[in-house]
Design a protein that fits this description.
Elements: H1 12-16, E1 24-26, H2 29-38, E2 42-47, H3 52-62, H4 65-74, E3 76-81, H5 86-100, E4 107-111, E5 117-121, H6 135-148, H7 150-165, H8 177-190, H9 207-220, H10 223-238, E6 252-253, E7 261-262, E8 265-266, H11 267-284, H12 287-303, E9 314-315, E10 318-319, E11 322-323, H13 331-337, H14 340-349, H15 370-374, H16 380-390, E12 395-396, E13 399-400, H17 401-418, H18 421-438, E14 439-440, E15 443-444, E16 447-449, E17 452-453, H19 459-476, H20 479-496, H21 529-544, H22 547-566, H23 572-582, E18 587-591, H24 598-602, E19 610-614, E20 629-634, E21 637-638
Parallel strand pairs: 1-3, 2-3, 18-19
Antiparallel strand pairs: 2-4, 4-5, 6-7, 8-9, 9-12, 10-11, 13-16, 14-15, 16-17, 18-20, 20-21
Length: about 650
């Protein structure tokens, strides 16, 4: 069997392929030198460890000795974990979308030895079927073309590369309130009145869209914006997208009603959804939303947290080779675990029936009321234990800086409103892990696993970590977090900023230089690094009043207005930054009375306020009547000090 060099890697995804007969290389000069030396094209396969169709293609094709021999004879084969190399994923996804009109994973790209793409696709079955070329036939076709029509393939690769590398000729947009209203109108036009969410199936949570709508309700009293957010949040929770037994959310729904998910659970989804449910509680005062956020945190702390405090990346959709099998039940299984009466009530509440809703079995979804569901809290540990015993889920235990930062931010926000010391401690431990394992001075690493660090960080790592430290600063009121945020933001400006054209590139001066430097602005499943940088810069300018951050924020908002003007609803996190700039948050200074708990005070203050907590009076901030005192400045005016919290939730 040829040498499979993935055995020396640390990525769980690469290790899944380390014992295949394919002569895999990790991305690196060794592979491209071999391609140049032997005059072979490169087959580049990009995926991630919990990707269902990656598993399917691996089993059908990469485990097959005939396919492995075709790859060995005609190609140099490279396998990449997209979560460790977002720069490669971004560059070649852009190529895939340009050449095919769509993209996804597994991504299958054919390159010249100079790393230029000339053919792209996603999943290919082993054999041709229903008009779709099979992978075996595709390899033979490309091998023949490389042998006899190579000049044509090279010209095609040059054209694609030139098109991708050209600077977009976009005119400046308008960074004003009209952009916010246009986005709300676009969300309204695509809103699913029956089931919540936007557009048709498949439906992704995209919680940053909901955060924007909740913000618009707060700023403009647009009841329709609140309605769209609330209907979506409730439907996502009630459906099978939410795991009613183990908690946490799956990646997306395959149907309009959020009933049947694609079952992998990603850390970033659960972090962003925690933020959305926490903010919904903040805005409405409805404890259902706080409970949903707390249940999601319970899942993350129980199943996705490393002993040292970092957070794992994902849980697989498949168990024992079957997608979703881990989550599905028949009524008799529940009867084996709970009493007959309790099992019958549980099955009614969660729609577990003989006919099922998923391949003859049932994915639990909340048919009864939230109040009914609360009555089964004591049953859930038994059901979780049964599920683990029956089958298991593969865990991607890689710890990614950017996703960890999102979870730290989410736990910080939740801790502010829940007052739960476990949430606070988890946010602090997550930050300690990041700083001790993933940060070196003012530089970040992209990942770590089993003591092995990945390469230098990308824009998202810096943008999201600055965001996390700003949220921790608000929670803990410790200046070191603000100092860290400013230090890392300065490094991002220096390494990723484009002084000539504006914005930030995904890869920086110290990262590997690829055929192009992507500059992502559109918010996908995760907000873009450029959007989060805009938000960071606005918040830093408002917290510090530093002219440097104010100037940088204005330039970043103007830069993003170009793409946001074309599709506002695709830039929700940028719009949050713009809204924060146009309608600045209140500044609240709280002077604590002796014996008063800062955590209890925080629970009364909205998440979007800028808070300073003083443990004792200082110049200009005295105690009123010896009791905890609130000083509020809103807009350009400051109110008289008061002893009562200045806000009423909901």
């Amino acid at each position: 069997m040829p040498e499979n060099r993935l055995i020396h890697e640390s990525s769980p995804y690469l290790l899944q392929h380390a014992h295949q007969p394919v002569d895999w290389y990790p991305w690196g000069e060794e592979a491209f030198a071999k391609a140049r030396r032997e005059d072979k094209p490169v087959f580049l396969s990009i995926g991630y460890s919990t990707c269902h169709w990656c598993h399917v293609m691996a089993h059908e094709s990469f485990d097959d000795t005939e396919i492995a021999e075709l790859l060995r004879a005609g190609f140099v084969s490279i396998k990449v974990d997209r979560e460790e190399r977002p720069d490669l994923d971004s560059v070649y996804m852009a190529a895939c979308q340009a050449m095919t009109g769509s993209g996804g994973w597994p991504m299958s790209i054919f390159l010249t030895p100079e790393k230029k793409p000339f053919f792209a696709g996603t999943y290919f079955p082993k054999d041709s079927q229903r008009g779709m070329i099979g992978f075996r036939e595709l390899l033979r076709v490309i091998s023949r073309k490389w042998a006899h029509e190579k000049s044509e393939l090279l010209r095609s690769a040059d054209k694609v590369t030139d098109a991708l590398s050209s600077e977009a000729d976009a005119k400046d947009g308008s960074a004003d309130a009209a952009l916010l209203e246009k986005a709300v109108q676009q969300f309204r036009a695509s809103f699913d009145e029956n089931y919540g969410g936007f557009g048709d199936a498949p439906k992704f949570p995209t919680p940053h869209n909901l955060l924007f709508l909740l913000d618009q309700y707060c700023k403009t009293a647009d009841a329709d914006a609140l309605r769209m957010a609330e209907v979506t949040l409730r439907q996502m929770y009630r459906g099978g997208l939410f795991d009613h037994i183990g908690f946490g959310f799956s990646r997306y729904s395959t149907d309009r009603a959020f009933q049947i998910p694609h079952f992998e659970k990603m850390l970033y989804d659960n972090a962003l959804l925690m933020m959305a449910y926490t903010r919904a509680y903040d805005v409405t005062g409805n404890r259902f939303y706080l409970e949903a956020a707390e249940q999601t945190a319970d899942y993350v702390l129980r199943e996705m947290t490393a002993p040292e405090g970092g957070f794992y990346s994902a849980q697989d959709a498949d168990s024992e080779g079957v997608e979703g099998g881990y989550y599905a039940f028949v009524p008799s299984e529940i009867s084996q675990i709970l009493s007959e009466k309790m099992a019958a009530a549980f099955n009614r509440c969660y729609g577990i029936t003989e006919q099922g809703n998923f391949a003859g079995r049932s994915i639990p979804h909340l048919v009864g009321s939230v109040e009914d569901a609360r009555g089964f809290a004591d049953c859930l540990p038994k059901l979780r234990a049964y599920r683990r015993q029956r089958s298991g889920l593969r865990l991607d235990d890689k710890i990614l800086t950017s996703w960890n930062a999102l979870m730290i931010a989410a736990l910080s926000q939740l801790a502010r409103l829940s007052g739960n010391p476990e949430h606070r401690a988890a946010a602090i431990r997550g930050a300690q892990f990041l700083r001790s394992h993933l940060q070196e001075g003012d530089r970040l690493r992209v990942s770590c696993r089993e003591g092995v660090c990945g390469g230098l960080g990308y824009l998202d790592d810096y943008a999201f970590t600055v965001f996390a430290f700003l949220e921790l600063y608000q929670l803990m009121q410790e200046p070191e977090y603000l100092e860290q945020a400013q230090q890392l933001c300065g490094r991002a400006m220096d390494d990723f900023g484009d002084a000539e054209h504006g914005g930030f590139s995904l890869s920086g001066k110290e990262n590997e230089q690829l055929i192009m430097k992507p500059k992502e602005t559109y918010d996908g499943a995760i907000p873009s690094g450029n959007s989060v940088m805009a938000y960071d810069l606005v918040r830093l300018s408002q917290i510090t009043s530093n002219p440097r951050w104010q100037d940088c924020a204005e330039r970043q908002l103007k830069f993003l207005s170009k793409s946001a003007s074309r599709l506002p609803m695709g830039h929700a996190f940028y719009l949050l930054a713009l809204s924060c700039r146009l309608t600045p948050p209140d500044h609240v200074t709280v002077v604590l009375a002796e014996g008063e708990n800062a955590s209890a005070v925080m629970q009364n203050l909205p998440l979007d306020t800028l808070v300073t907590v003083l443990k004792q009076p200082s110049a200009g901030y005295a105690l009123l009547g010896g009791r905890t005192t609130y000083y509020v400045c809103a807009g350009r005016a400051c109110r008289p000090p008061a002893n009562e919290p200045p806000y009423r939730r909901g």
